Amino acid sequence: MEVPCVRVPREQGEATRSRLADADLIDDDYDITVADEEGVLYIPVTDPDAAPDDLDVVSRDVPERETQTRPADLLGFEPSYERLGDVVLLDEDSEERALQLAQAIVDSDLPVETVLNKQSKVKGETRVRDWELLAGESTETVHREYGCEFLLDLDAVYFSPRLATERYRVAEQVAADDRAFDMFAGVGPFVVPFAKRSAECVGVDINGTAIEYLRENARRNGVADRITAVHGDVREVAGEYEDWATRLVMNLPHSADEFLDTAIELAGDDCVLHYYDIQHEDAPFDPGERAIRAAAGAEYDVTVETRRIVRSYAPHEVNVCLDVRLERVTR
Question: Hey, which bits of 101-194 come out as E strands?
Fold first, then answer.
């Protein structure tokens, strides 16, 4: 059966496999295939769009794993779900169907402890959602991506595994002399990999539980000495870090524009801003650019270095990122 695969020279095979495994992108339903005549490996992946841009993704006929019972084998159809650590996430309106899927997932050979079904959208200033526990005992799990691991409780914090590739893209830009400030840090998926690249980091979040997990994740990843985790409203914290940041992350789509004055307060003389937004597909970047330029005023020269569509969000709406350089105007 033809499935999306990363095509990689054999000598790079193990490093690439580990990289894809850290991002939870390997499709365990199919075997990794060696093509001796080509000197390459074909590594099946679950989401070709999420694979790092520097990897070659092709369609390839690879054998299914016969030893693993999949949920689809038990159901007779391919269910839709996400995996986060040892947790499976469903988004089913029908309770009967959700229970059917949960039972098949538990009875399959997937390494899963918990099955949750979404009961609400992300809500409130702490950005959490309601879940129904269909199987298992705990909503806490350990998620691994690109060499980092994150302990988190889905019932208490916000976390999206779909942004793994985007976080990796941004982390690859970070230098050892960066002073990085994440204004809505959550459990640390940006600042932990930044700190692993030797940057000095500050992560702020209004969700106190998220900050507790951020501190734990800094310890888990050996970077506690390079991360300051602050519980509070970033607008009230910013005065302590005025003109400090060389890199700012604003991952709060729908309302990041409300915090741009704070971002300008935090920015140093030369600062890269990673600004996330959700807009209509017809003009996804224009509102963010206008808002950033308005906030910067005459204080900074503004250069948009990257305009990137991260993913689809809803019909005709996309989640985008603007990488923007702010350079203070010398008078």
Answer: 114-118, 131-135, 140-145, 148-153, 179-182
